[in-house]
Amino acid sequence: MAGRRARTGRGWDAAPPRAGADDTTPRQGRRGWSGEAGSTSGESTPRDESEVAREICLRQLAVRPRTRAELAGALAKKGISAEVSAEVLDRYDEVGIIDDAAFARAWVSSRHNGRGLARRALANELRQRGVDGEVASEALDELDEETEAQTARALVDRKLRTARGEPDAVFRRLVGMLARKGYPPGVAIRAVKEALATQSAEAAEFADQLDADALADAEGERG
Predict the structure, then answer these.
(1) How far apart are CA 53 and CA 25, in angstroms?
(2) CA distance 176 to 185
(3) How much is the pTM?
(4) For 209, how many CA atoms within 13 A lie in the half-sphere containing its CB?
(5) Domain boundaries in the chain?
C-alpha cells in the first residue's frame, strides 16, 4: 500500500494534495527556521533559510513538475524572503531542475492527449501557471490545426456512442463539450456535423442541413 501511495499524484492531472499532507516543512515562528529537536534545555537550532527553501521546492517537484512561478508562489506562502527565493530558483534554472519551456511542451502534449484540450484551453492553463506568453506560444505551435481537428472528431465519436435525444439536442451538447475544451466554433461544429452524418438517417439528414461556416461565424460574433 505504501508503494501505491507513493505513485499517486505524480501525473499532470493529479489532484492537489490534501491540506497538510505535504506540509512538513519548518515554519517561521517562535522557534525561527527550525522544526528540529532542540537541546535538552528546549532550545532549537535555527536553520538556514536557503536550505528550507530548497526543501520546499523539492517537495513540490516530487508531486509533479512545476514552473518557476509556481515554486515562487509556494516559497512566498511559506514565508521565504523574495531575495532567498530568487537565489534558489536562479540556481535551479541554471542546473535545469526547473525549465518552463520543457514544462510547457510536456504540459501541452499530456493535456491534449490525455484530456483532449485544444490550444485555447491549454494557453489558459499555462498562463495560470505563470508560463511566459512567448514560451507558451512556442509550445502550442507543436499542436497543429490538423491534430486539433482529429482530436475533436475522436472526442465526438466517443460521446456519440452513448448520446441520447434528438439530433439537434445532441448537436448542441457536443458542440458545447468541445467549446469547453477550447475548440474554436468552426472546428467544433464541423467535427459534430461530420460525426452526425455517419449516424442514423435522421441524424444524417439533420447534419446535411447544417451550414458549418455560417454557424461558426455566428458563434464567433456571439463570443
Answers:
(1) 9
(2) 9
(3) 0.73
(4) 8
(5) 48-98, 100-140, 145-222
Q: Express each pLDDT in 57-100 by its tens digit.
A: 999 999 999 999 999 999 999 999 999 999 999 999 999 999 99
Composition of the chain by helix, strand, coil, percent to 5: 65, 0, 35
CA–CA gap between residue 101 and residue 61 (Å, rounded): 16
Q: Are 220 and 185 in contact (CB under 8 A)?
A: yes
* CATH no., domain 48-98: 1.10.10
Cα(49)–Cα(29) distance, rounded to whole angstroms? 13
Q: How far apart are CA 176 and CA 184, in angstroms?
A: 11
**Site of grid cell 482530436:** 151
- CA-CA distance, 171 to 9, in Å (whole number)? 35
Cell (9 digits) for 42 = 528546549
